Glycolate oxidase
Amino acid sequence: MPLPHTAPSAARLLTVLRRELPEDALGIGPEATAPYAADRSGSRPEGEPLAVVHATRAEHVQTALRHAHELRVPVVPRGAGTGLSGGANAGAGSVVVDLSRMNRILELSPGEQTAVVEPGVITAELDRAAGEFGLRYAPDPASAAISTVGGNIATNAGGLRCAKYGVTRDAVLGLDAVLADGTLIRTGRRTVKGVTGYDLTALLTGSEGTLGVITAATVRLRPVPESTATVAAYFDTFAEGAEAVSALTAAHVEPAMAELLDGPVLAAVDAAQGTDLRSRGGSLLLLQCDGRAAEAEAEAAVRLLRKHAASVETTTDPVEADRLLTARRLVLPSLERLGRVLIEDIAVPRSQLAPAVREIAVIAERHDVRIFTFAHAADGNLHPILVLDPDSPDVPEAAWRAASDIFTTALRLGGTLTGEHGVGTLKRRWLAEELGAEQHALQRRVKAAFDPHHVLNPGKAL
Amino acid sequence: MPLPHTAPSAARLLTVLRRELPEDALGIGPEATAPYAADRSGSRPEGEPLAVVHATRAEHVQTALRHAHELRVPVVPRGAGTGLSGGANAGAGSVVVDLSRMNRILELSPGEQTAVVEPGVITAELDRAAGEFGLRYAPDPASAAISTVGGNIATNAGGLRCAKYGVTRDAVLGLDAVLADGTLIRTGRRTVKGVTGYDLTALLTGSEGTLGVITAATVRLRPVPESTATVAAYFDTFAEGAEAVSALTAAHVEPAMAELLDGPVLAAVDAAQGTDLRSRGGSLLLLQCDGRAAEAEAEAAVRLLRKHAASVETTTDPVEADRLLTARRLVLPSLERLGRVLIEDIAVPRSQLAPAVREIAVIAERHDVRIFTFAHAADGNLHPILVLDPDSPDVPEAAWRAASDIFTTALRLGGTLTGEHGVGTLKRRWLAEELGAEQHALQRRVKAAFDPHHVLNPGKAL
């Protein structure tokens, strides 16, 4: 939907924002806005945003939205800009609402095992603060050290511990959100249970800034598990690793983490780090069990894995566990040494992991693109990573075609376009295919109920 | 919003439904409709429904809704009619869409740990079918033996195991739903994770039939825990029991179940069943820990409870556990012998359990109403049960005033009007107070995006 944005309305908005916001809360001009124009998706929007509002209070967000709504100027909410699907990209004529300065933990209640936080709190900071009380914030996207709780909620971020602890939505009890017209609402509750009214908390979670701007969140905390046991198993092929994960599920082992790395990923880590992972197998499964029965559960896993794996190691020693997990942590830095990375994110029914990876190999060959894949295997969530020529500023057509084939493969296998990164701008083309025309139309009506003039993050998510 | 329903449109609807539905799928006249006019809330709607559609396929639901939408005749979806808040009450001029005959388990995949079911499947039946594969359907409302999966989803039902396994929403991956105009949509997915589009699955869950009629659900199953340990602890007062539950939470014990019964409940069970529970304490806490570490966790609980309790018993023997749990199971039958029961359902932050129960005692005295309370204590979810004169057909004003005071107490303590039963018709009066005027207005706009003519279960939930 083209926005009826015109230069005069932009000028009027800037005038009114200058008048109504504190001086240090408004950045105008390319120097001020450039750092806020794109996320980490590798795609860049056209043109430059008009201005950036550095909100330090919900009122600033309300002021910005109220006037933008009136003047029909698009607004792009932004946390730390670590998104991977273009959701925070801010193009010509838009105003960025930057929430990174709203970064206070307003309340942390060990008795209730809840926290109330502003959206700009870094996810790992919240986890650390909870840790002082033996608690933790369970959602742990790989970006936890640099992404914000608000951004994680806007994308319903996943992570490594989802297998056991669920996604961000499962940790969010209630939200303060500013609607497109500047109205502040408070959704959800502070209790563990509650069914009053429609679940707008869940609706806002994962809505990628298109329904409202989150200005506070009440989240659940959970006890840090008493102990953790880590297992590393090498397999000859990725398919065997995937089958082993299915066998674990069938045996009712419920790991907190099950990361499966394919052979090319292992070779890339070896090349970058001087390790010898690839020589030990064609895929590596890293498993963590936690809780009071962590060791017993890991032992059950090991007994089962020995039937499938080339080799299996296990430990409850944190230092040794860290050594085992290092390979996983080094995946991205190692791939980034090979070229420019484009991180994809599909999910399939767990039984379809191996077929999905087989298809991805075929797709890589068909389009002559290098693809490295690892998976949050217990969730069926795959990250095929396209590694592109670092010297080419644009993503080549072949890469987009490969990505397109990956998405349609996910849908054909009964899966989804995005397991945890969001639709953003990059996956909108395939959206209607997954949702169906009727649901897609309904979702647009829901959007209109929140934001009738399509001011909030237009062109994203839907 | 008054519906522009008139007798001519009703007559036309019946004519067209007679023509388009199979003969045995349509019931007309008081004899056919009377069993479908009310739920178990104790409130009765005014007048009689026009007809009842006994759907056996989604197409029947689509046909009924398409024409009802066109003719502006209200439709009341109904599972087993076991709701406690009036959500399935069908008054004058409405058409009931009965889903109880859509009761097939369409698919049960042990490998994926998912099932696809029609909405009329009895919750306990699904659990039993999953049990054949060592799996279970975690949501376990007390009504599981008589309520349906679809009805549970429509109310986002809770239950006893929520403390560890969450509510119904946490088990629902995707839905088939018929919208007000007869359109069938398929929300969500079959994968564990996925963030494509707005989370309409969560929005439909708990929407009490006001946004769409569920015709199929894809749900998660979970492994049956390896072992279960049960603990029973008596305390001198309810407050001490509530404090013990807080102490367990603080010690990071995570029971699968924590039911706390107050003294009057114990006395009522004694009177009905000849037991001597009340002589052993002023409240009884029943705790279950499950999983690989059930015994170790129960032992940790017992060590802690001994500091607070008058007496503590524990067992891992299923027969002995059943004896300990009998008191809980006998609560409702025992209270029903004392009079007509009105079951309330509030939730408060866990630290506010004891204050809530103290307030409830004051409210009972103020309005001279007998109130018996038990709680899903680890969730802060309280069920104050008003026991009324069995010979009076109407609920006396004093009871409604007491209920009103209970709701406002819940809100004052930072809680919610309904932990798991839903708003239905009975709690609408207090809804705006909990949601706030702005969110309430937004929720009505969301409703209109789904059902612009307010045909689906009007006068409920919102």
In short: The domain at 105-223 of chain B is CATH 3.30.465.10 (Uridine Diphospho-n-acetylenolpyruvylglucosamine Reductase; domain 3).
